Amino acid sequence: MARLGLLKFRIGGPNILTDWVYGDNLVHAQLLASMALIDDLPGRSGIPPAAGQAYFISDGAPLNSFELIKPIVEGVGYTMPQRELSVKSAMTLAWGMYAFYGLLYPWLQKSWIPEPFILPAEVFKVGVTHYCSTWKARQEIGYTAIVDKKDALDRTVTYWKERHSQELDGPPLLSWIFLLGGMFLLFLCVYVPAPFMGPLEFIRWIGLFIFRSQETLRIILYLACLAHLLEGIYAWIVAMKADRKNARGWFWQTLALGYPSLQYLLKRAEKKKLHQK
């Protein structure tokens, strides 16, 4: 969401706390529980302590969800929003999104359908305080968090930084809509006859008012396509040196978006050059 520019607000206040568990702590708890299911250990008799039991496992330090992800989001170069959206407003938005995607039910498995921006379950997860005690796990299976909150967060930030440096980066969603939509409208203005433009005919009127002739619009379209092609080729060349794994993705993304995509690649190439020094 942060990459697409969709992380625009926090949900609820900073006093909303939830449980989190680091992977190593969870695996440690599973190992302890499996040991507590063995019934033939020396000194143990009767029913194993973990038989038929359920345990709450966490790091033992409830955190606000947005305070948790803040160092991760900022660590990979994005900005955390400062605006807060009330839980009530977030639920209204979430149920609206739920209803909209309900109408799309026959096509939800299609790859071209994006994931919903927000759903009621996500609002409950981050907007309502909920955490549990690990007392039972501590008493019956001897669980304690082997990685504390600070180390867990540091490791998580490091992981996401490394992962982000290996993935294709790019402009926010609005840039995709603006650039691809603009190119599409320019194509319509140049090649679609007036009777078939329908309500979009006013776009051609605006173009003709600014550029004075259909021929000028055609030249602009050709130059824009040529510029995107050259930028895509240049992106391929740069990516083969700076990010070979994603070279093909950088080419296609820059071919579609032009310089807004290329600048992300150039920043990555500069970071790699500084890192090598």
TrEMBL record:
Pfam families: 3Beta_HSD, TMEM254. The keyword Transmembrane applies. It comes from the Eukaryota. The keyword Transmembrane helix applies. One of its GO terms (molecular function) is oxidoreductase activity, acting on the CH-OH group of donors, NAD or NADP as acceptor. Keywords: Membrane, Transmembrane, Transmembrane helix. This is 3-beta hydroxysteroid dehydrogenase/isomerase domain-containing protein.
